[in-house]
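Two records follow; treat each independently.
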Amino acid sequence: MTKSAGVEGTSSSDPNSLKEEGNIHFKNGDWDSALSCYSKAISLIKEESKDKAILLKNRAAVHLKKANFNEAAKDCTASLEITPNDPKALYRRCQAYESLGRCEDAYVDARALHSVDPTNAAIQPVLARLHGQVQEKLRTNAQTGNKLQSMSDIVFDFGGDKEKRETAANNLIVLARERAGSEMMLKNGIAPKIQRLIKVEKNEEIVVACIRAIGELCKHNPAQTSKVVHEIGIPWLVDLCVGRVGQGLGKNERRINATQHCLQIILDCFSGLKTAVSGGKEEKKPDTKLIEEYKKEIDTLLMCISMATTARLASGDGRDALILLLTQNVHYSVLDWGLQLVRNGGLQRLLEVSSELEEYTYESKMEVTPSTKTLVAACLARIYESMYYDAAREEYVKAVEEFVLDKLKSPDLESKVRVTVAITSLLLGPLDVGNAILAREGVIEMILVMANSDDLLQQKVSCECIIAGASKKDKVKTIIDQGVHILKKLYQSKDDAIRVRALVGLCKLGSSGGTDASIRPFAEGSNNKLAEACRRFLVSAKKDQDIRRWAAEGLSYLTLDADVKEKLIEDRAAIQALVDLGKSGNRTCVYGVVTTFVNLVNAYEKKEAPSEELKKLAEFAKHHIPQEHELDDPDFVAKRTDILGKAGVASALVALSHTESAACKELICRVFNALCNQQELRGVVVQQGGAKALLPMALTTDPHENTEMGRRHAAQALARIGITIDPTVAFPGQRSAEVVRPLLNLLHVDYSALENFEALMALCNLAGVSETVRMRIMKELGLQKIETYMYENHTLLRRAATQVMTNLMLSPEVIKAYEGDNDRLKFLVLLLSEASLEADFDTVMAAAGALAILLSNSPKCCKKMIKECSRWIETLQALLAQPVPDFQHRGAAIVEAMVRSSRQVAEKIIETNLLEILMVLSRMDGDEYKKIRALASEALKSAEEMKLIKKPGEEEEEEGE
């Protein structure tokens, strides 16, 4: 909006001048400038005067225009405190309250205004409307109150029927979802009652339902959430999550999940976290004003969650849930908790959790799960990512160093073991920090001494640290230089847990050549021997899951070698063991299992092969050129993919897709896409739940839930499924509409032609499903994207896009788009004629079909065609004259629709030789011309009814006279 002349650039410090300037901006519709002027003027008036009341009213009017209803109500209230019963202030606050859904408060203001100014005509309809809303709300509240009373009586009756109590508890959830129900529940103090019930309730179904009801109460608005939180207390909710409430019932997984979800709802409500578009991408963004307003509550939640991570009485699952909450909210793009955790000791507490070992059994030990270390490593990485400037990162590293030094100062062996385990977590999370700690004097030497000791626990933790540290050879040269010798020695151990870890370390070092067939770090055949050792650990029924997952991790490194891939894929027992391990869904198994699958199907990122000229230059400069193994040719890859698909790998991927790691989700999407690349496996993927698992991974916009490349592979896999399988089967119900967005995301200029083509083919099938899907395509701006590809030079892309448009023409909204003031129809006709010249029959068929549907449903487009398309006659003549029945059928349908549309259009048709062609077509023999004859006859009949042509009998009669 342009600023008015005469006020632009004004920087007055006089309230009256600012008010006048604000009034001018308001009249011009420049709400932001008006708001700025009124706010400045208000800040300059210290005393409660009439002038201040006027400015507050004016600012409230701006807030109403900007839909900031809370702020408008506050300004009106402040104005009324200075000048009670002011009509304008009452009216504007009434508007704000009504917009906020506070009809009773709005009604009170409307009545007050009517009393002050009975002649005010504007308030009469408002008063009548609000009176009806208040009466309706009173009736609803009465019904809701009866329901609540009835359900409360049942739920809180400990001696009542079990099934009735469970049903009533679930009904509380439904009631809490409704605004009227939630307000009534708050008035009746339902949250404290639930709190008291949970402390003594034995029925876990009722406990979980009550926790979910509290979560629903916190969804409506921050003020209501604040009331709930203050009634039950944040510490109680956190304790409920970790399992210290209700005599150990908190260890129940469903209770923990429900409480974790409830805590996240509270955080989302206080922070206003919602999806926003930034840089063309959707991202979850918090509301900074809300965060500032509820900073105390948010900080309390952070502190309670952070403190509870090291609670000695917490269950392992509860601890994992809290660490997951920190991971989801710590990043600077969400709640920016990173620096707070560094400064308040939260980072050290996480390191303490990561150093916990099951082998140390004493009364005050922390309970952990097999997933705890993985979750802590991910959380440590997220915290480090949120340190987006150097000073903050320095604080992070300093806090870690203090933790490490404190442990190293202690003379006991346990502290040294624990610090080694914590360093391993750092190497698996924020790698740069882990490497920085390893580089400190004496740390690597300590780890190597532990590896050479006879103590099994020391060997185990040092071996894991060596494996994690071997990722960056240039930074941990000591580990690499001495690691092979130590790992070989540890592999001779009689303890399987030590042997398998040493084996993984050797596998990692042996895979340093990657996929380059010319690099062999170890002697020829060593990798196959290592793979065989991993295989023995993997398939042995006597080995526990932890040993098998280490064996899978060893294979994840070795399967970069094509020889190992081929040997492994023929070993059905080993493949089945990998699949079964994946089906367990264990978080610790994700990386090893999925990476092995990625390597087997060659779904990893591949560098573009250098040209022959570059190869010659490299040879001349004596530079190494990577060589691809002959066993990685497409035929071998296809065979391996087929074996994996038939072994049930899709079900394993579905189970593993619940991982919190975005990198692992990308790997899962890569394998799914490789499976869907083979047409015969697509049905298997759908049957095993692959399409359902892929959809959320393709839809997410959070980079911490899936990477951009992961989303891309997931979308392509969905496209391939949508091409082959009936969309109503592959994407039943609402999924057929939800899959639209990821498919449209594949229509990107930077993506390959294959991705574009497959997306268009799947969209074509989806567009034929229902009007709901077609409307979703329109809503996601799919029409514009698809039209872009209709005029591509690429024949297949042009054809596929035109076929999508044919199905989209079934939507009245698409037809409206073509009826608008644009060149869409002209381009469609142009495409048809150009395609005809190129003899691209499929595109001609699709374009003609789209045009036939459009003109059959839009008389307006029939007129547009004659008026705006200069070559419409030649186009129709070419279609009708083609010696192909399908072309002639579409041409006849177009002409029939145009003749039927209006007399004006029909006259233009009759003026051309199209009439003679229709007469010929109406007399064609053969079953293949049955539909063409019918359409031609209908067109001629319409012309006869309009008296534009005469019936054959009438012509003969005239000739006889």
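The next record belongs to a different protein.
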Amino acid sequence: MTLPQQASPAPASEPAHGPALFPEVPGPLICKTADIFDADSVRAEIDAFAATSPDNAALRAETVRILRATKDKGRAAIADAFAEQPFAARPLTRSYTYMTDGLVTMALYVARTYLHPMNNPTSGERIALIAVGGYGRGEMAPYSDVDLLFLTPYKITAWAESVIESMLYILWDLKLKVGHASRTIKDCIRMGGEDYTIRTALLEHRFLDGHAPLAKELDERLNAELFSDTGRDFIEAKLAERDNRHKKQGQRYMVEPNVKEGKGGLRDLQSLFWIAKYIHGVQDAAELVPLGVFRPEEFETFVQAEDFLWAVRAHMHLATGRPTEQLTFDLQVEVAERMGYRDQAGRRGVEIFMQQYFREATAVGDLTRIFLTKLEATHVRNEPLLERLFRRKPRVRDGFSIVNGRLAIADPDTFFTDKTNILRLFQEGLRTGLLIHPDAMRHIQANLDLIDDGMRNSKEAQKIFLDILLKHGNPERGLRRMNELGVLAAFIPEFEPIVAMMQFNMYHSYTVDEHTIQCIKNLAEIERGELTEPLPIASRILADGVNRRVLYVALMLHDIGKGRPEDHSILGSHIARKVAPRLGLKKAEAETVEWLVRYHLLMSDMAQKRDIADPRTVRDFAKAVKSVERLDLLTVLTVCDIRGVGPDTWNNWKAALIRALYRQTRRAMEEGMEDLNRENRGTEAKQTLRAALPDWPKSALKVETGRHYPPYWQGLHVTAHVDFAEMLRELEDNGDTSEIKIRMHPDEDRDATRACFVMEDHPGIFSRLAGALALVGANVVDARSYTTKDGYVTGAFWIQDGDGSPYEASRLPRLTQMIHKTLKGEVVARDALKTRDKIKKREKAFNVPTHITFDNDGSDIYTIIEVDTRDRPGLLYDLARSLAGLNVYIANAVIATYGEQVVDTFYVKDMFGLKYYSASKQKSLEAKLRKAISEGAERAEDNR
């Protein structure tokens, strides 16, 4: 399938202008004017009713009825035409403007002619109706605000107040969202001088109806008294406004962008046009081409991006029936379908759509940067003289110059005779710290075809690219600019498919290319010593020294295989095998890069999806890694990869898991695999417990250290051992073995609360604990359950609240009380959870297939069942209850959550203490688990 064509809509079958009653809207509309708003017919109907009914209230009610029916008919006609022409954004915005003009001017006609007639108005009883802002510009989305200015010559009169009030009531009854102001010309000039928002709105005013000479006077006086000689101030204000908006909305690579206000969105294009209109007096962006502001091809890019973004915004409004600006996950699916994007080659249509969105947003960024930087150089105030005198001006190499404080190309004709100068521009930018001049960016984009195989394979180009990655301490700055200008994809063609590629899930916050750059940014920050405290192991590894060429290139290529049907790690390793040598790496280095790309998820999966307290987990991981050198490289790469997923993805829990796996693996590699023996670890743990309980009698310590099986000693920290020892002793001292003991402590090192339970052992205890925790709304992130030799169960669950944080200490007593009630049977978790299962609307857009696997090699004692499916409340309880119903003993569970996806891993054995080797038993277990998932999903759907 090819991308939907952005064909021009068929011209309307009649001239695209309205009757004399209201102003002409230039350009073709999306359908016939009579279908949008038939002004003559509407006015005739209102006039006929007015002739027979002198009652103002009845006339106003009838006017609203007529206009509402006309509005509904017009909106339906526009929406139907847009469904047939889903990219016809400009005709759509003009059509809504045309319809709104009809409604607004008709309301004024009724108010002036019938409700408040004035046969001989004085000079002060004049009114001009003016559209401002986006409505004034003639660009309206389906649910845009209607911004109006009621202009009067002097202080507003009682007659004008009555006309305005009656008109507004009509518009409000039509459910239009009206923004309005009543001002004199003097007010407009004064308030526009004080407030740049008002000034911007006035910049785009458009006369609708009323006293035309008054509107003309406003136009003349605004140009003479407000807009002239204030261009510099206006540009500074708009640049500051843009920066604040971007800071608030986030980067354009965020996967749920704000189409209107976000970076690369419509507001950026509008800001560009506002400034152009303010400075050059243009009425259309096309006028910027003969002025030399845009080249013809840049203007084409402007038009394409604007049309695409307006089309997306319009579909969002129509899909939700309200002025929605945030392109959320659920909306992305619907808008993609509306615009004709379909699944292809292992990718969903929504992912193809969002890749196009981000590419258009990047184009907007390029255009606004070119335009605004040029204006900034000529119109924005220079820095103070003293700062310029004392600021040291960097020296640039031959072929470059500094223009307005930015790195420029001295002579384009000679610069491109050496193709590697394209890369040198970014190298020089990093070396000097200078921003690149927009004209230099233009030259680079115009000469991307010079980057051919000869240039890619040249030793000099390889050297420069590695210098950009390794030498200057902030490679992300150079890489991001290279990516935005198309240089990165041209120099590494295999990188092009992942440019602006969205990963359609709730886990990743960035597009694939931006994620890659974020990973490299994290690596540079660790190297600069900025993350020593939160990342002690990665910082120490880099301080001790690793092959930086291998590490940076591996991060550059680790996700390069994404977006195709094959496993991206395997495909990426094949790509890395070809690309790494082309980037100048030696054979051994290239092989290590290939291995790192192939296994870049190995450490993360082992740490988050397996029980790293199980010696077999560490042993298998060590065998796969083979050397301390690879372990060090993979650890740093894993940390950067997880941190590069999103702003809040890395947390203490993941840090603790990665650190533990690294330390245990390194110790096993250096001291021998026998160090992982359970008995050896158990002996150490018992000694640690004795030291932690110095006041206990030897007899009590002997009972405690003798009642647990080996897995208990390796699976828990000494603080948990102390909790369990004290709770078990309390149970026996009280003489009531049926009692349930619960202790909860915030485990800040793991961003979770540790909940420890002690009670008599009985079948299904794990599922009961999971149900109790689910009922109180706790999210389980890890769980371990051990049976003692004398018939008790000791369960440790790490839980988080709904925000993914440890529970506050003040909430723990009530939490404990509620769990007690559930465990005592006062509340049946299964029944109570039926009303709580709910999948959030924005999560329903994702396809999360269920995969269930059985692994009998990953543990010496247990069968490992891995359930990969959609996350939802109560899932762990449903799965555990199904296993308990088949007499499956659950030793522990490891829970890894990736946005809307969760991987629940259970370490289990049957009632005889054996693994599940039988294929028929595995099939039966899988069927039960799938049934539990589907029934829970149905409950969640019913409760939506």
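Discussion point: The mean pLDDT is 87. How would you locate this feature using only the token line?
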